Amino acid sequence: MDRSEWKAAKENVMRQAEGNFHLSAKQLEDQLAKRQYFVTEEVCRKIVHYLSQNKPIGLRGEPGVGKSELPAQMAHILTSNLIDIECHSELEAADVGISWNSFRQLMDAQTSKIEFEPFSLPYLNQTPLLQSLQSKQPVVLRIDEVDKLNETTSNFFLRYLDKRELIVHDLVAHEQTLHAHAPIYVFLTSNDYRELDPALMRRIAWIHLSFPSEDQLTEILTIKAQIPIIMARRISYLVRRLRELSLIKKPSIGESIEWARALLLETDGRITIDALHVTLGFVLKYAEDERRGWEAMQSWFLGEGMGS
Fold first, then answer.
1. What SS3 class is residue 84?
2. Which of 29, 165, 168, 236 has a 20 to 30 Å separation from 261 between CA atoms?
3. Of the residues 208, 224, 254, which one is the last residue of a structural domain?
4. Domains in the chain: how many in total?
5. In terms of DSSP H, where are the helices of 203-280?
6. Is 181 a domain residue?
7. Residue 90 pLDDT > 60, yes or no?
8. DSSP secondary structure code for residue 209 in this structure
9. Residues 241 and 293 in one domain
10. Does 194 share its domain with 234?
11. 150 lies in which domain range?
């Protein structure tokens, strides 16, 4: 392929990509930062590439790193409706996809108030996937903890993820395949509760969200907890050290923010050993974690003069 062919091919793909998603990685990073959600440039580049190809995005990472929050922020940035599906093992395909409102069908038939065919669009239950297809506005669909779905319901999503469409076999007076009226941006989250089916994995482009570095957490605490930067640095240092311990549950971003606010209220700007003791429940949730964390923090505090 010569350079002119390469250029023409690239321009063609770029036109298609911009039709699916119009923001650059830098613009997306800036927009997210304005909403006080901080991710790396690399994560933003991945999001742009995946959404430009109309690919469902899977978000992996330990609890508390912002997996569920990212789709919500994307909905604001894209001025889209946010539609939620909270996954669990008892969730059935009829709960999220296609099901008939049989009670309404029966009542209308008995009272002779049927204005439509009994198996027409008005008698479909307004499930999350149907709402996403019928929306006239762009939609961000958040499928939370997809790894908790049972295998049958998980397999039901395959066609929707591929083509953003649903088939209603009993539908009359209408095409049986329902298509989207507006763009749909799909985000799925997983805590690796179980291994996902390969067919589902193939349809998703995955991003791993990591806990922020100490410097990044300092910036987050300064902005979201509204504390002085010196105090934010000290708290970020403590959070990093705590997360290096062998804990049942490591502190999350949200818990770190709550801890920072509590320490701000408990002190005059200097972090004291007593303030740490009475606020430790914000970040350490289990008795064994609190015991181990408290012992470690006493040694750090006394050995490194953190209260100065």
1. strand
2. 29
3. 208
4. 2
5. 214-220, 229-244, 253-266, 273-279
6. yes
7. yes
8. P
9. yes
10. no
11. 55-208
pLDDT (tens digit per residue) in 241-292? 999 999 999 999 999 999 999 999 998 878 999 999 999 999 999 999 999 9
H or E stretch at 101: none
Using a 10 angstrom Cβ sphere, with 0-12 exposed, 13-18 middle and 19 or more buried, the burial of residue 2 is exposed
Q: Record the tokens describing residue 248, joined without a space.
A: 């049942």
CATH of the domain at 156: 3.40.50.300
N- to C-terminal Cα separation, the chain: 65
**End-of-domain residue from the set 208, 234, 266:** 208
Structure tokens at 183: 């763009």
Confidence (pTM): 0.87
Task: Report whether pLDDT(112) > 70.
Answer: no
**In the predicted structure, residue 307 carries a pLDDT above the cut 60:** no
* Closest of 292, 213, 299, 290 to residue 259, by C-alpha: 290
Range 241-267 burial, b when 16+ CB lie within 10 A, else e: ebbeeebeebbbbebbbbbbbbbbeeb
Report yes or no on 36 lying in a domain. no
Contact 100/123 with Cβ under 8 angstroms?
A: yes
Is 159 within the bounds of a domain? yes
**3-class state of residue 188 by DSSP:** strand
Task: Return d(Cα 139, Cα 274) in angstroms, integer.
Answer: 48
89 domain residue, yes or no? yes
Query: Are residues 174 and 238 both part of a single domain?
Result: no
79's tokens? 């001025």
